[in-house]
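Let's see one such:

===
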Amino acid sequence: MAQAFAAVVLVCLASVPPEACTEDNAVEVRSTIVDSELRCTMGWQEIIAHEAEPRPGDAPTYLKTACRRLRPKAG
């Protein structure tokens, strides 16, 4: 069985230091399933490409990416 990974993108407020931005305090969390760790480096680009343009007045943000190994489903 092939391994699956989640390419995760955290949308973090600019006022939050990168080391403090987590899934718990991110403004938004987006992810997509990819089939390898290498694809994680490209998977987040697909997520952002589908993003709507920022609305005027939104607080400044930055992106933080992560790659997580998914556990196979039992069964």
